[in-house]
Structure formats: structure tokens, C-alpha cells
Amino acid sequence: MASPLQPGGLLPLWTFLLLVGGLAEAGKLLVLPMDGSHWLSMRVVVEELHQRGHELVIITPEVSWRLAKSAPYTMKTYKPFYSLEDYNQMFKRFSDNQWDNINKGLLSLMNPNITLFFEYVFSNCKSLFKNTELLQYIKESAFDAIFFDPFDQCGFIVAKYFSLPSVVFSRGLFCHYQDEATQCPSPLSYVPRGLSGFSDSMTFMERVWNHITHLQEMLLCPFFFQITLDLAIDVLQRPMTFKELYRDTSIWLLRSDFVFDYPKPVMPNVVFIGGITCHEAKPLSQVSYLHTSEQKDMELPFWKLFSRTKNVP
Predict the structure, then answer these.
(1) Terminus of the chain with fewer CB atoms < 10 Å: N or C?
(2) Structure pTM?
(3) Secretion signal: which residues (predicted)?
(4) For the chain, give me the number of helices (H) and strands (E)?
(5) Is residue 313 a part of any domain in this protein?
């Protein structure tokens, strides 16, 4: 199977590179990634852009799991209010809660451990805008576009503040703002909500629950993202709604596909790039025994190996 980054392997990626980089001239791109597994997916595109001669500047907090290891790209950092130890503790509480409430959908977001962790995540944007030296650098750098993960909403605010064309890179958003901002029809009887777990072939009761899930989004999402909306209003110095914050996005690159999920209406600026992180599998090394410090030469059962991975960012 052709690699997604080889010619002909993935047409949407080549379309994205064409739009960002131009036909014959390398572009200058501001990158706002998310940490952890989000960065592992985005890094595939960032590395390809770097190899093609585009100038990339990555903006990250000083405290991170993986982003500090992003050389040889140009890195600009800002200081968050928390330490790495605090961040690790918050993430552990967050992941434990998600595993314990895996079937509760949006209601799991109302847990205090969840809201506190996301307050940490959302606070990064406030720290960025408090760094006047970094803001001046971004202003003077004359970037062609901003490429960002929308999970913490900060990229939308930065794009509006500096009037930059924006390219979103995401698996999908669990709230309804993307559909509203792109003016994309999403009839609830046919298109399941993000965390519902339904397919496009829903029974009558599943359609009823899909409507209930949508009502939950309408009630819970404004509360959940209010921190970022307040920041956007403060930074942009004008009234702002979530729809206004999202709607000027130039391109939505979604790491999904009808083959993976289900067919649904989309707008022309929504590009599916499902499988972008797929590569040919590397041969696995043979491992017959795993050793612990207390009990050496003891075979570790397969299920215990995976029970230890749930807190890995």
C-alpha cells in the first residue's frame, strides 16, 4: 500500500500543501499544536512541510510532554502558570475519570476533575496573550497562515487577532459549533452527534437519543468553553459568539473518512484526510519476558501490559 506521504498516496494532503505553500514559493506558517497524542498526528504534516522548504514557527508553552522535542523547527515558547508536575497530576485525574465514565458521553465533562484539567489547557491561550514580546514577534513575522489544532480554541483567537488565514487540523469536534460555523446541514435523524456512538443507520430510539445528545450539547458546550469565549472577547475587544469564532476558518482538515465513519453532508472547505498517519508496519521485535524490579524473570500477562498504559499521554 502506498504511503500517505508519497505522490498519489493522499490527494487531500497535496491539496493542502498547494493551498498553503503556493505553486513555486515556500510559505511561512505559524503552527499552534496541542501536546500529547494530538501532536503525534500533526507532526506528520509539519515534517512534510519542513522537508518541502516551508518556514515553520511552532508556538508552545514551556511546560509540555512532547513539544519541546520538536527540533529542527523554530520554537517560540511562553510561560504557563502551572508546572509539569501539576500538569501530570491533572492529566492523571482526567484520564482516570474518562476510563471510569467511558459511556457517559458529554455528561462526563461535568466532573470537577475534567473541568479543572481543561482550565489548565485553556489557560495556555491567556498566557500566550500576556507575552507581549511573543505577540510582537508574531505581528512582525508576517505569516502567510496559521495551522493549528482546535482542541483548546486558541488558534481561532490568534487567527482573528492577527487576521491570518487559518487551517484547522483535527479528528473532529464534539460540540455543534463546527456545523454551525460552516453552515453545513446536519439533520439529526440521519447524522449522529459526535459522542453518541451511533451510525448513520439509526433506529427510532437512537434518533430520539441523538436529539437528546444535541440538546445536551446546546446546554453544556457553552458552559464548558465559556473560558475561551471570555478570552476572545477580552482579546478582540468586541462581542463574540462561538459561531463567529469558528466561521472564518479557511480550511478544515479532518482526520476522518466516510469509510471510517459514515457519509454526511460537508462543505467545500472541509477536507477529509483520514489515514494521514498510516505508515507501513515495522516488524515487531520478539519479546518473551518483561522484567520488573521486584520480580525478575517472571512473564507478565498480556492483559497486565495494557492495563498499565491508560495514563500514558
Answers:
(1) N
(2) 0.76
(3) 1-26
(4) 11, 7
(5) no
Tell whether 266 is covered by a domain.
Answer: yes
The answer to whether residues 187 and 157 touch, using CB atoms and an 8 Å cutoff, is no
pLDDT band at 295 (very low <50, low <70, confident <90, very high): very low
Long-range contacts of 47-51 (CB under 8 A, 24+ apart): 48/5, 48/13, 48/17, 49/17, 49/20, 49/21
Average pLDDT over residues 88-93: 80
Largest CA distance in the chain: 65
Which among 84, 81, 75, 87 is positioned nearest to 31, based on CA atoms? 75
Strands 251-254 and 166-170: parallel
Residue with the bigger pLDDT between 301 and 92: it is 92
Domain total in the chain: 1
CATH classification at residue 139? 3.40.50.2000
Q: What angle do CA 39, 163, 78 make, to 5 degrees?
A: 45
Whether residue 15 has pLDDT greater than 60: no
Q: How far apart are alpha carbons 242 and 255 in whole angstroms?
A: 22
